[in-house]
Amino acid sequence: MAIEDIVGRIAGDLEHLKRYTATPKAGCTRLPFTKEARQAVDYLKTIMAEAGLEVKEDAAGNVFGTLAGSDPTLPCVMMGSHYDSVVHGGDYDGIAGVICAVETARQLKERGIQPKRNFVVAGFCDEEGMRFGTGYFGSGAMLGKRDVAYCKRFRDTDGISIYEAMQAYGLDPNRIEEAAWPEGSIGCFIEAHIEQGPMLDAGNIEIGLVDCIVGIQRYMITVNGRADHAGTTPMDMRMDAVEAATKVISKIPDWAREKADGTVATTGFIRTIPGGMNIVAEQCEFTVDIRSRNNDNINDIVRRISAALDRETEAIGGSYEMDNKLTITPVNLSQGMLSVMEESCKEHAFSYQYLPSGAGHDALEIGQVLPTVMLFVPSKDGRSHCPVEFTRYSDLAKAAVVLLDLAEKLLTE
Ligand code: HGY
Ligand code: MN
Ligand code: MN
Hints:
With 413 residues, the protein is α+β, with helices and mostly antiparallel strands. The protein has helices at residues 3-17, 35-50, 95-110, 137-142, 148-153, 162-169, 199-203, 241-249, 252-257, 295-316, 335-348, 362-366, 393-412, and strands at 54-57, 63-67, 76-82, 119-124, 186-194, 207-213, 215-224, 228-229, 264-266, 270-273, 279-280, 283-292, 319-328, 331-332, 352-357, 372-377. The strands form 3 sheets. Strands 1, 2, 3, 4, 5, 6, 14, 15 and 16 form a 9-stranded mixed beta sheet that branches. Strands 7, 9, 10, 12 and 13 form a 5-stranded antiparallel beta sheet that branches. A two-stranded antiparallel ribbon has the order 8-11. It is globular and about 80 Å long.
């Protein structure tokens, strides 16, 4: 199939999927267990079936399409990404990788390639953790790492738990553990994804070969003070939760910079309670998202945050809670599969470079336990997690060519 035709099919699918957002004209907002998620999953099921795949939606809200191998007892080759998004995000993050995997399956069929082992296209639910503050819910469930207690533990800002959201979506959260795949049933995982950073675009490079993914720790921190009148309460009699919290928050970026090795730390959410302009805040909630290729760096910054919270909350006579939402260690990806993709880039004269991923992905979760590889395509100006996120369909088509070469080798050897 000519690459122009591949471009056309990928463009058709992604242009169609763009409509499934809760914030039309303001980016993609496709949160887990929502109407938009249901619409996207139903579309993915349709095109997977049209591609001749056996389609299944599991107990966690993941969707899989299987191209049967001659020996289905062999560990499968799985390829995919996530179909959810952040709020006001872009139209390519996650979903472009799912469509590249569907396109790979289409071409395997059209070329009459008979795989020895199953080829499974995966669309994962809730990779972002945007709604419940977690992450990798669907891929974690596939690995047997999600249970009913987990579903009841995490709530969104409206107080709805994952458990309740799943019920409203039409899933039975009591069956969440049925989403786990049998030990040894997945041989490897491949994920194509937009870079979400500036390196490929700035270097005019067509393909990114990802050799490692950073580790991540995420916390929701609540500083407790006391509500008081903003006008009548003397400054030395306040228990101002915002004063204590901001003295900690303001230090975190420099603690990351001091590592001088690409370590990053972000406070992306802050909320004061009760939130009145003439009320000394009783509570201040904020998140921290810390990432590094060096896990010791992450642990050191967490330790410094905790020590600063001890100091600053004691100074106001308050207290704090530090709720761990996600802890995942850095992962090195499969050099064997990277080498196959590198050979494919050379064969097709695609420019390429090796690079790390500063973003977490389902591959980060899956790569903890299975041979895993990622391929990046350029993000225009490195922008992502915002409505201006953009990737050329022609770049995704080149990725599909490389993915097909890798899949064909893995499925026929
Ligand atoms: O947050 C991340 O790194 C990814 O986009 N989920
Ligand atoms: Mn993302
Ligand atoms: Mn993503």
